[in-house]
């Protein structure tokens, strides 16, 4: 009888431990990228994509803890560390099998910007091959263009490539067309309209493949609900 009681106690302990592991909050890693994600003090955040993620977790009855890292490191952390996700990252063919995806949490249009004092005449993307282009590590678009033979200089953070444009170290800057004006305004930099809007990407949350698919599906269903009931459109309509 004592042996059976001990076995039952051990089994209950293991069962509860398994539940605790299954219910442990996911670690979400993001980066400062207004208006999609605005990094605040104390690892707090705001922004379009963050509000969508926050509401998605609420609907799914799930929890997360938030951390901030540079974009490329955030992507690597999600790929390499169990229970970890990164957002908002470009979903691409090269990254597809490395992560479990939930999205899109935002749709980004990408433009090429020149310095107001050094405008460049660009009609097609191919015209940009002659110029030095600034982007950031972890940008799916910047890394794609680099792979296609464009002269792309990748900074560690999105705003640093704007500073490279300001300093004349690059001739063009790739940016999300919603993020570009805010990034420039926050740093007191004048910025014209893009010379060319050339690409659209889906930004999603990518999770380590160790995250159970049942959990991924539940979060994805919550996101779908936000699309269907109009909440996502309401979030996107809010002022950044």
Automatic annotation (TrEMBL):
UniProt-recorded name of the protein: Polar amino acid transport system substrate-binding protein
Database matches in PANTHER family: PERIPLASMIC SUBSTRATE BINDING PROTEIN FAMILY 3, SOLUTE-BINDING PROTEIN FAMILY 3_N-TERMINAL DOMAIN-CONTAINING PROTEIN
Signal peptide: 1-22
Keywords for the protein's UniProt record, in alphabetical order: Signal
Species name: Marinobacter mobilis
């Amino acid at each position: 009888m004592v042996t059976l009681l001990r076995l039952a106690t051990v089994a209950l302990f293991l069962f509860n431990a398994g539940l605790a592991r299954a219910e442990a909050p996911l670690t979400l890693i993001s980066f400062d990228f207004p208006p999609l994600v605005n990094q605040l003090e104390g690892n707090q955040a705001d922004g379009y994509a963050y509000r969508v993620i926050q509401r998605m977790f609420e609907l799914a009855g799930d929890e997360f803890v938030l951390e901030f890292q540079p974009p490329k490191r955030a992507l690597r952390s999600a790929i390499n560390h169990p229970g970890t996700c990164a957002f908002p990252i470009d979903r691409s063919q090269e990254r597809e099998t490395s992560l479990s995806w939930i999205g899109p949490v935002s749709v980004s249009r990408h433009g090429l910007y020149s310095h107001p004092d050094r405008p460049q005449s660009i009609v097609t993307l191919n015209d940009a091959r002659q110029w030095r282009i600034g982007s950031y590590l972890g940008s799916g678009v910047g890394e794609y263009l680099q792979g296609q033979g464009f002269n792309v200089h990748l900074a560690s953070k999105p705003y640093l490539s704007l500073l490279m444009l300001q300093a004349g170290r690059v001739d063009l800057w790739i940016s999300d067309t919603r993020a570009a004006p805010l990034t420039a305004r926050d740093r007191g930099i004048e910025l014209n309209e893009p010379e060319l809007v050339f690409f659209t990407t889906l930004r999603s949350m990518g999770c380590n493949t160790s995250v159970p698919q049942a959990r991924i599906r539940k979060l994805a269903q919550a996101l779908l609900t936000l699309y269907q009931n109009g909440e996502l459109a309401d979030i996107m309509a809010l002022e950044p």
